[in-house]
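Notebook entry, structure prediction.
Reason for the run: the old model in the group folder had no record of what sequence produced it. Starting over properly, with the input documented here first.
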Amino acid sequence: MFKDLNRFEKWYLIIGITINLIISWYTKSAFLAIVNGILSLFVGVYNAKGKVVVFYFTIVETLAYIIISYQQRYYSEVFINVCIHMPITIWSIINWSRNQNKKTETITVVTQTRKQLMMAVGSQVLLSFVYYYFFKMVGNEMLLVSTINMALTILALYFNAIMSEYTFVCFLASAAFKSTLWIAPILKGDLS
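New structure, fully documented this time:
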């Protein structure tokens, strides 16, 4: 599994894990948060490589994140991960396994038509209203950020499952909004 990592990927993991541990020490993070952060690095590397093994890291990382999000009252994150991320991960394992090159154990990225792209994005624009009112009803923290994050995360998961070229962009945008959920309390002095 690690033998097929290039030098950049190895250094990315080493530096990422080091930064994760330093931040975890500074913020006195729980063990589960440390595990989640480290697994997220592996998910990023193996997802970019198109390796099916990414989803085994994803399942453990997602379970940890569900617990952490629930403890912090980020119900949007719990909802995304329990009701959407886990089922799409299972679908992704099946889809990627069926469509991988047996020799290289990687998948081939697929290009969507303009119509497919517009339908995917349009569905999330429309569903954003549903997400917003649902999160408002359950008393979710940071309502607008959570709503946008939900739509972007679902797009990223969908694109990832169908092996789309848009996966990375959506995950990057989602990560920016998700980071806000966790950075805002730290800036207010809440290191929990």
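Summary: The longest strand covers residues 100-101.
The old model has been moved to the deprecated folder.
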